[in-house]
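KTSC domain-containing protein
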Amino acid sequence: MPSTVIKKYEYFPEKMILRIEFLSGKIYDYMEVPKIVFDEFRGAFSKGTFLNKKIKGFYPFKRISNGKPDPLPF
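Structure:
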């Protein structure tokens, strides 16, 4: 079932980073996420619900993109 909030996700096991791109275009990296948590996320019926209940507030994060185009350099 497609998510209503998550466009795509990717996991970098060597760095334990879960990258989530939302439909809004915002991209966040959640750090120190164990592979077992990623596996549970991947298998969850609702990725958004799992994210809210098991990842947000439990792992540090960094916003990679705010969903808006970068300003022109001039």
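The chain has one domain: 6-66.
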